[in-house]
Amino acid sequence: MLEKPAIADTEIVACVQDAFHLRVRRIAFLPLGADGNTAVYQLTSQDEKPYFLKLRSGAFEEVSVTLPHFLHEQGIQELIAPHLTKNGALWANAGDYKMMLYPFIDGHDAYDVPLTDAQWRQFGAALKKVHTAVLPSSLAAAIPTETYTPQFRELVQEFMQQIQERPFTEPVAQKLAAFLNEKRDVVVHLVQYTEALAQTVKVRPLPDLLCHSDIHAWNLLISQDGALYLVDWDAPILAPKERDLMFIGAGLGGIWHTPREQTLFYEGYGRTEVDRDVLAYYRCERIIQDIAAYCEQIFLSDEGGADREEAWQNVVSNFLPGSTLDKALAT
Question: Which CATH architecture has domain 1-104?
Answer without folding.
Answer: 2-Layer Sandwich (3.30)
